[in-house]
Amino acid sequence: MKTFSEVLLAALISDAVVALLLGLLLKSRTERIAHEIRTQYEQLATTFRSRFSWKEKALAELLAPLHMQLNRTERAFRRYAAGNLYLEARILKEGNEAIRNLLIEKGYLIPLELLPDADRLIEHYDIWLEEFARVRDAAQPDLATPFVFVGPQGYPFPRAAADRFQQLYQQLWREVYGPAS
Question: So where does this one cross the membrane (predicted)?
Fold first, then answer.
């Protein structure tokens, strides 16, 4: 017959083995969960960095220059006075070309939902520039030559499309740089 101390020792060894096995199982499970969390975190961080990088690039290369040119041409259009050929030929033409070229050259930075708006703007600027070339380049313009305006003749400025680009510019600016102070 076993003595009490032998039974106690066997129970302690048995409990120690069970505790060791449970500890190893829990450690393995904890390590697996920690690895899964690290992997998920890294995936989320990569996605965040990628989206943030796209936002910065879209702002710097497309939306900020587009914003400035849209504002510039809008101000020029509001100031237009009959016979101001410089305003029309320099500011509006340069601005309209710059906007069209930005949309074409930086199309990869345009979100899918704004592609139809980009198409409308490009079409408008193409028509305006064609008309400008017809009116201004074909003849020697003078103060009597009418302002190049394609709205009533066929394709008015797509204001809503321009506004959506301006809204995206403001939204991304706040997301990247924070609210204006």
Answer: 6-26
